[in-house]
């Protein structure tokens, strides 16, 4: 395929028909490809892996992760008897017991049987008095949802209550009789990226069509977002005009103080993260920000009283200052101070920043492990004027089963739940190593496997990566991978390449648009380092990634085929000429560039796997997976790439499921199937010989 003046128009694309998601010819092609893959990969070992994976996913002793609202802890739970799940709740006292008593609110499987629709639960927003909820229902895992009002006492949907047809929607309560929502219901309501262009206020008892437009953005913008703060004495609504995936204009409408009832744009950089839970405005810019005589560096956290900022003051106090190895991932405002979630050389740290007479002081939260990922979330507290006092901590590591704990600002966190071990970790070691990129940058990666320090012959190894959108890859318990891969003595590596957020905003900005290839080159450097170290060889090394990571491993196939013995490519972007025309692709132009701009297509085509695929090269086998209900990354990417590689005589396997959406997580059976097929593919490639 040659460069064109407008490559996005699809002219000359012989496989364009595979973009017709439910097209008869396309569906027949998918069925034939699935049958071919099943015949090749579904053997006795596949069946054993499927059973093992499903057992882990359905285990009764898993942690039931909860969120607190009012007096209750809410959980969504799937198991063998309830494959689509139960929305349920309990009390903290009951949750602390070995066998909590759960109050079932909504049985999704029973709902599906009544209505004859394959719904999946997609979350719920509880009303201010906690008596009702706005429940989001997704068809087979799509991002688009149908929204319905639900009565928590009667456990029924409210007749004549708030209801919004299926669309990409977000909604929240202003009060018991008023909601705000943004919904891409039709072309006028939608941006070019397919998200809501308008935010509306809807009062109970009035038609949906009469809902008042209270905020709107332009058609070419990505979306109109909003957030509602109902904290007593700090009530406010914030609105975001998302210009692209990285830039926003932010507006706030406080209900108290000198600016009550006014909507004011915050004079902030367009690339910034903020929070304003109470009286303060916390700001973390993505690029250095010159404010008066001072500069707030990218990735720092600064604070000022919101009213003073609106009055024109700019004397920010610095709460956190990044270093070359320490980056701020997120923060929580609490009554005790600001809880900072930090990565220190890709290892989790939690620190409490407290305001004193001499500025902000930092101290580490006590009794937390040194080599793990640690996440913090507020545990209720949304109705407390002085901010919440409790946070729930989630601690996990590659070989460390996940635990949760509750911290109230005093002493050590108190253990809540501990997950069971899903695999035998005897002899498992975790090592952090570094590859050297082409420009000399050190690229860290984790290597996990049995008896690493003992050496030995090269072993089959999976290299996983993502490298985009400032997403950080951190240690997480490897339940299924541990059972199906590590127990057999194989190795697994996780690459912290540029494009992610492991070392702050600059790590992401180093691989965007014209420099997007940097993430791909970093990944190739890690692959070379693994082979050079002797733990594996190119023939025994596979790469795996999904979504943007699917693009990453697609470029490994087409740009660096000599480095790998197999490629496992999940829900990928691959046709970078047409990605902006397919579903949510328009929203990612800030990450990849615009193929309809000739200057930007000039660099995009250099890493577009669909356009680089060639019969003149020898490629390793590739397994490409997608989902028909994925309304984020179009399944046409995977379909067309598989068809093109097949036409070129290259070794390719393909599988498309018909339920699950982009994450594939709405059904444990489908998840187990996808994992088992992937490992069956690896057994037939890098594990042979």
TrEMBL record:
InterPro entries: AB_hydrolase_fold, Pept_S9A_N, Peptidase_S9_cat, Peptidase_S9A, Prolyl_oligopep/macrocyclase
Record GO biological process: proteolysis
The Peptidase S9A N-terminal domain, residue ranges: 5-234
Entry annotated with the keyword Protease: yes
Pfam families tied to this protein: Peptidase_S9, Peptidase_S9_N
Keywords: Hydrolase, Protease, Serine protease
Residues annotated as domain Peptidase S9 prolyl oligopeptidase catalytic: 485-684
GO CC annotation, single: cytosol
Keyword Protease: yes
GO terms assigned for molecular function: oligopeptidase activity; serine-type endopeptidase activity
UniProt-recorded name of the protein: Peptidase S9, prolyl oligopeptidase active site region
Organism: Rhodopseudomonas palustris (strain BisB18)
């Amino acid at each position: 395929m040659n460069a064109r003046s407008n490559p996005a128009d699809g002219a000359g694309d012989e496989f364009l028909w595979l973009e017709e998601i439910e097209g008869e010819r396309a569906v027949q092609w998918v069925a034939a490809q699935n049958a071919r893959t099943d015949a090749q990969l579904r053997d006795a070992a596949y069946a054993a892996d499927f059973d093992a994976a499903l057992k882990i996913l359905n285990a009764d002793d898993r942690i039931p992760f909860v969120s607190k609202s009012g007096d209750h802890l809410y959980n969504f739970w799937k198991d063998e008897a309830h494959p689509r799940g139960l929305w349920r709740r309990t009390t903290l006292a009951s949750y602390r017991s070995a066998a909590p008593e759960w109050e079932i609110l909504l049985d999704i499987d029973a709902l599906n049987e009544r209505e004859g629709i394959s719904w999946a639960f997609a979350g719920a927003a509880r009303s201010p008095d906690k008596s009702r909820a706005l429940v989001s229902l997704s068809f087979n895992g799509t991002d688009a949802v149908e929204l319905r009002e639900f009565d928590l006492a009667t456990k029924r949907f409210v007749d004549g209550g708030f209801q919004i047809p299926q669309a990409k929607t977000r909604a929240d309560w202003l009060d018991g009789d008023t909601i705000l929502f943004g919904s891409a219901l039709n072309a006028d309501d939608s941006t070019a990226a397919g998200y809501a262009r308008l935010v509306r206020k809807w009062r109970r008892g009035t038609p949906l069509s009469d809902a008042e437009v209270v905020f709107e953005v332009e058609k070419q913008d990505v979306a109109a977002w909003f957030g509602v703060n109902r904290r007593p004495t700090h009530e406010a609504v914030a609105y975001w005009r998302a210009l692209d995936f990285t830039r926003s204009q932010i507006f706030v409408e406080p209900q108290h103080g000198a600016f009550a009832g006014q909507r004011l744009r915050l004079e902030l950089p367009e690339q910034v993260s903020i929070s304003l839970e109470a009286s303060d405005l916390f700001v973390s810019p993505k690029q250095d920000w010159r404010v008066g005589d001072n500069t707030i560096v990218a990735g720092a956290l600064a604070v000022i009283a919101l009213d003073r900022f609106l009055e024109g003051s700019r004397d920010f106090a610095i709460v956190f200052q990044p270093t070359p190895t320490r980056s701020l991932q997120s923060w929580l405002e609490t009554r005790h101070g600001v809880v900072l979630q930090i990565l220190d050389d890709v290892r989790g740290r939690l620190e409490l920043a407290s305001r004193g007479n001499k500025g902000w002081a930092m101290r580490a939260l006590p009794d937390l492990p040194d080599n793990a990922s640690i996440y913090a979330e507020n545990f209720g507290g949304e109705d407390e004027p002085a901010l919440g006092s409790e946070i729930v901590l989630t601690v996990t590591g590659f070989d460390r089963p996940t635990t949760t704990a509750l911290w109230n600002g005093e002493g050590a966190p108190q253990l809540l739940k501990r997950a069971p071990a899903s695999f035998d970790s005897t002899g498992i070691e975790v090592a952090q190593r570094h590859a050297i990129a082409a420009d000399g940058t050190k690229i860290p990666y984790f290597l996990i496997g049995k008896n690493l320090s003992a050496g030995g012959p090269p072993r089959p190894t999976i290299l996983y990566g993502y490298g985009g959108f400032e997403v950080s890859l951190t240690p997480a318990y490897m339940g299924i991978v541990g059972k199906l891969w590590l127990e057999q003595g194989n190795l697994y590596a996780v690459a912290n390449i540029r494009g992610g957020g492991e070392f702050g905003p600059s790590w992401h900005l180093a691989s965007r648009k014209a420099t997007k290839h940097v993430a791909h080159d970093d990944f190739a450097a890690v692959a070379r380092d693994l082979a050079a170290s002797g733990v594996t060889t190119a023939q025994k090394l596979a790469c795996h990634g999904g979504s943007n990571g699917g693009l990453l491993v697609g470029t490994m196939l087409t740009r660096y085929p000599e480095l790998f013995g197999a490629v496992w490519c999940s829900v990928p972007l691959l046709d970078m000429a047409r990605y902006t025309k397919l579903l949510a692709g328009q929203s990612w132009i800030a990450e990849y560039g615009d193929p309809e701009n000739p200057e930007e297509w000039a660099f995009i085509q250099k890493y577009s796997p669909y356009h680089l695929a060639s019969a003149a090269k020898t490629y390793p086998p590739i397994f490409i997976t997608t989902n028909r209900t994925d309304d984020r990354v179009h399944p046409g990417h995977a379909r067309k790439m598989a068809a093109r590689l097949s036409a070129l005589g290259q070794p390719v396997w393909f599988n498309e499921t018909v339920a699950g959406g982009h994450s594939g997580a709405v059904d444990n059976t489908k998840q187990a199937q996808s994992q088992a097929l992937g490992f069956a593919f690896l057994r037939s490639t890098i594990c042979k010989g």
